């Protein structure tokens, strides 16, 4: 995998498609422990991102430019907590991706920055049943893969797999942050929708590399 600007653009398109394909699933997860609008909000946001990306007269010069476009668009089009959280994640990531191509360590930097952004905005830590529970294991797996000499594809694939496992591991947790925390013990038994969408976003990055 070459994690270049073309890959970043494919990642946007793959994410939009995956989120649309899983709209009903995300909506149902959010209906159980939230407002029930996460699926629709995410679909609307990434459709807007794709529209803006495709309308550019000149292609982005760096991976960071693609990520910044995602950030600003999501912040302005996605309602609820998801817009600010995802927007901040992509914005922080864009600042460490001012290059034409990411290597394995670069992927780690992007994911670490995204996690830091989410935690700065949402004040959540691992174990509180939020998207952080997908991002923390993703970062840990990415670091391990990069330290073992993994290239961008291997690092990203490790992160995506760990994010999926992290999202699934939110099912038994009791939410202590966000809307779901209002349910207390009743929030247990349901996968966190933000963690689920985070896993989809990272899996889309893997799909983008395979498509390239």
From TrEMBL:
InterPro entries: DhaK_L_YcgS, DhaL_dom, DhaL_dom_sf, Dihydroxyacetone_Kinase. One of its GO terms (molecular function) is glycerone kinase activity. PANTHER family: TRIOKINASE/FMN CYCLASE, TRIOKINASE_FMN CYCLASE. This is Dihydroxyacetone kinase DhaL subunit. Signal peptide: none annotated. GO terms for biological process: glycerol catabolic process. It comes from Luteimicrobium subarcticum. Residues 6-207 form the DhaL domain. Keywords: Kinase, Transferase. GO terms for cellular component: cytosol. Pfam families: Dak2.
């Amino acid at each position: 995998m070459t994690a270049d600007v073309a890959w970043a653009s494919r990642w946007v398109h793959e994410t939009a498609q995956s989120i649309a394909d899983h709209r009903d699933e995300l909506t149902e997860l959010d209906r159980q422990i939230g407002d029930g609008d996460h699926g629709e909000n995410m679909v609307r946001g990434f459709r807007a991102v794709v529209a803006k990306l495709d309308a550019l007269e000149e292609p982005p010069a760096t991976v960071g430019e693609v990520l910044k476009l995602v950030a600003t668009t999501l912040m302005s089009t996605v309602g609820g907590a998801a817009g600010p959280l995802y927007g901040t994640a992509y914005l922080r990531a864009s600042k460490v991706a001012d290059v034409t191509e990411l290597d394995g360590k670069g992927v780690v930097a992007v994911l670490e920055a995204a996690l830091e952004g989410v935690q700065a905005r949402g004040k959540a830590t691992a174990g509180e049943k939020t998207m952080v529970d997908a991002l923390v294991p993703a970062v840990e797996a990415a670091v391990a893969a990069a330290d073992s000499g993994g290239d961008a594809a291997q690092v990203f694939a490790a992160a995506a797999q760990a994010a999926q496992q992290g999202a699934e591991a939110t099912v038994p947790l009791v939410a202590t942050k966000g809307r779901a925390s209002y349910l207390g013990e009743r929030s247990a038994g349901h996968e966190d929708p933000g963690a689920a969408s985070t896993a989809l976003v990272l899996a889309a990055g893997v799909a983008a590399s395979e498509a390239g």
